[in-house]
Amino acid sequence: MKQLLLVLLWLVLCSGQPALADSAAIRTGAEQPERYLPLLAGKKVGLLVNQTSRVGEQHLVDFLLQQQVQVVGIFAPEHGFRGDYDAGARVGDSRDPRTGLPIWSMYGASKKPDLSLLQQLDLVIFDIQDVGVRYYTYISSMHYMMEAAAAAGVAMLILDRPNPNGAYLDGPVLDLKFQSFVGMHPIPLLHGMTVGELALMIKGEQWIANAEKLQLTVIPNANYQRDLPYELPIPPSPNLPNAQAVRLYPSLGFFEATALSVGRGTPFPFQVLGYDQFASDEFSFVPVSTPGAALNPPLKDKKVYGEDLRQVSTDGLTLSYLMRWQQLFASHAKVMFTAPDFMDKLAGTDQLRLQIERGDSEPQIRDSWQSALQQFRLQRQPYLLYPE
């Protein structure tokens, strides 16, 4: 199976154009219709998409309908088809007022698509902008769709997009004992792969049931390499509104399991840290209800004090924020990790939380996951579509 995948990947790479140094020249999978429209001719198509699924300025759904593709329905992930649901908010089935197409939730009573819906289709397209962090749930929805497509005998097409954190391979590799919707695969927190590469790995490593039955096609990005800086043209979710939030998200996402605010309910989510009972700095802010982004944010309507990170230079995964705040909480005899089980799911292990609570140094913590990182680097190699 792996030898076959290597041959297929070699053919894909050889058929593409050489990578350029200018990120403006990048063309996403969706922006190369000449490569995928022939695959859709005469097919009944479903789409797992959201507000980031664009062909230039046009939504992929509208573009495909304009091209006379037979679109049957839309599957909606966390945050909904239009990206206007709060994190964790249940997404219901509905109908798109623009196109009249049914919208089927993949973030409601179940996070798995109903097989009866897939049996209406010949092919499912996944086209969603990811941020390259394991606990960001779009890749979990992709996993469930791949598994359902394999069970239903439906082909799957991934329109690839760049990973804005693609230059980094860092963090603990998930221990399957801590598997959840915020971490389904034994990959590092920052895995350095695009969704197309990850889909190939999920199939190739048989991380889904009936992996060998899934007919999977990936349309790679053109002129892309993983170390190119790439700023997302559309926010991927309500609380990642800009490039700084996307860069800080690998480090600040852990604070969702703590007593602190990460700025949900402010104009700068995932760009600040604060607490209402003591301060690490003089900066202050007040989280408020912001429907669609943070209806009931942590520390709502309280003045909190902490750190303004909007202008800091950040690079991959930074542990110093967690370590500094843990020391501050400990000095006040307070517990920082108020949701330890959730922290362990986010980290993919209980070791990171225990190391931070114990006061281990950053080099000690980082050393503890280097062996697994190197093993993963080798394991992912057959599935890479772009230069390292």
Automatic annotation (TrEMBL):
- Superkingdom of origin: Bacteria
Transmembrane annotation, as ranges = none
Give the residue range of the signal peptide: 1-21
Instruction: Identify the Gene3D superfamilies for this entry.
Output: 3.90.1150.140, Uncharacterised protein PF07075, DUF1343
Sorted UniProt keywords: Signal
Query: Which InterPro entries does the UniProt record give?
Result: NamZ (IPR008302), NamZ_C (IPR048503), NamZ_N (IPR048502)
Q: Pfam families, per this entry?
A: NamZ_C (PF20732), NamZ_N (PF07075)
Asked if the Swiss-Prot or TrEMBL record annotates the protein with the keyword Signal, the reply is yes
Q: What residue stretches are annotated with the Peptidoglycan beta-N-acetylmuramidase NamZ N-terminal domain?
A: 45-243
Q: Name one GO molecular function term.
A: peptidoglycan beta-N-acetylmuramidase activity
Q: Which residue intervals define the domain Peptidoglycan beta-N-acetylmuramidase NamZ C-terminal in the entry? A: 248-386
PANTHER family, per this entry?
Answer: HYPOTHETICAL 460 KDA PROTEIN IN FEUA-SIGW INTERGENIC REGION [PRECURSOR], PEPTIDOGLYCAN BETA-N-ACETYLMURAMIDASE NAMZ
Q: What is the protein's name according to its record?
A: DUF1343 domain-containing protein
**Species name:** Alishewanella jeotgali KCTC 22429
